[in-house]
Amino acid sequence: MLHLRVVCPPEHTTEVIGILDAEPGATHLIVLRGVAVAPEGDVVEADVAREAADAVIERLCALDLDHVGAITLEQIDTALSDAADKAAEAAPGEAADAVVWEELLSRTGEESRLNATFLGFMIIACLLAAVGVVTDSAVTLVGAMVVGPEFGPLAAIAVGLVRRRRDLVSRAAVALAVGFPLAMVITAGGTFVGEWAGLLDVTAVRGGHTVDFVYDVGVFSLIVALLAGAAGMLSMTSAKSAALVGVFISVTTIPAAGYAAVAAVLGEWQRCLYSIGQLGLNLVGIVVAASLVLLVRKRTWTSKDNGRPLSTG
Prior knowledge:
This protein has helices at 10-22, 50-62, 65-68, 82-90, 101-111, 116-134, 138-147, 151-162, 166-196, 219-236, 243-248, 253-266, 269-296, and strands spanning 2-8, 26-37, 40-48, 70-75. By secondary structure, the protein is of the alpha+beta class. A hairpin with a 2-residue loop joins strand 2 and strand 3 (40-48). Helix 6 packs antiparallel against helix 7 (138-147), helix 6 (116-134) packs across helix 12 and helix 8 (151-162) runs antiparallel to helix 9. It comes from Kibdelosporangium phytohabitans.
């Protein structure tokens, strides 16, 4: 279930109540008149089954409430109510299969922003990957995969392509175009300093190691990227977000970036280029698979995108 709160001008309150009262998947309807201050108006609240939320939001946006008022959604972890159970049963479909498109746009828009936090995670993940490469530690590489924040912008690009949101695509592309090169340059500098200080024996990388799969580009690299992109987008568009962790540790985006930085310091340009190729293959594969998943799930698309600008906060 999702908790819906609508701030609306008084002249729209009756229509909002009618929309929610007529929706079988909505319950626990509450009306608070005159309590909203900014923007001024009434507040209408209800609990809505996830599978009914997209249609409800479409009807509310048709009243222009996303501009003259506000519409917010929150996840309800526990609801002990017979009325909530009946609403969930009355709503069409299954909650896990439901896509709340406005929620997806908001989530990917936020996770695709280029900011200090995103860059910090990207740099830390790339440095961890470099340590994993130099020490031949697959466990450290897995840690780098989990820390890496790159799936958010990749998912945003897929959503932007399918919903034709150029602003979302450009924001995510900028985050990746800045984040990966910056992280790789800093990682190369850190590798050079570590070697100079005697902390890292980067010459050990020249031998055969268990982490050499990072730069070994092949058909299975593409298969894994496609499967990971599909699983990641399925997780983001449903209530089963736990699968994202498996996505993070199945693709070699961050490890490839870290390996490329270390190889560049060593002058191993072939391995560096192979690693960059691995990185590019994984990025493209994830976006393609995620976009295909969204196209398949497009049958639940209830309305055209209303073109609201992405949040900058």
